[in-house]
Amino acid sequence: MITKIYELNGLKNYKYVVVISQYNGKLLLSRHKDRSTWETQGGHIEKGETPLQAAKRELYEESGAVEFEIKPLCDYWSGDDIADKGESGMVFTANIKKLSELPNSEMAEIRVFEEIPENLTYPQITPELLTYFQKNVENLA
Fold this sequence. Notes:
The chain is of the alpha+beta class. It has helices at 51-63, 126-136; strands at residues 2-6, 14-23, 26-32, 38-39, 41-44, 65-80, 85-99, 107-113. The protein has two helices and eight strands. Strands 1, 2, 3, 4, 5, 6, 7 and 8 form an eight-stranded mixed sheet that branches. The longest helix has 13 residues, at 51-63.
């Protein structure tokens, strides 16, 4: 599996959103109830939702964020390049100001990290997106 990053709105058929979240200047990741690994907030775009609406919904459902600034960062495609099979999505950044309790969802917990942990749910996708974010964070202010 590979991940390719594109300029914002470079792709049109989005299936997913990914939210790279920061809380108090640190990376905020979520852990799914069925896994021991960490992941960014995000998921499927539901029928009738815009990518931004999906990103806001997923951010709340998977972190409990109630006050935040969110903005789009880039597009991505992930899949099998040889077979040309994969899915695309839009990546957002969120600066979380206030967290509530974690809603009753598929997530078990959230945690802040100083550095990217090794035990990621999507090790072929998340590091690529986080690296892109880190390289472009100055341009987002």
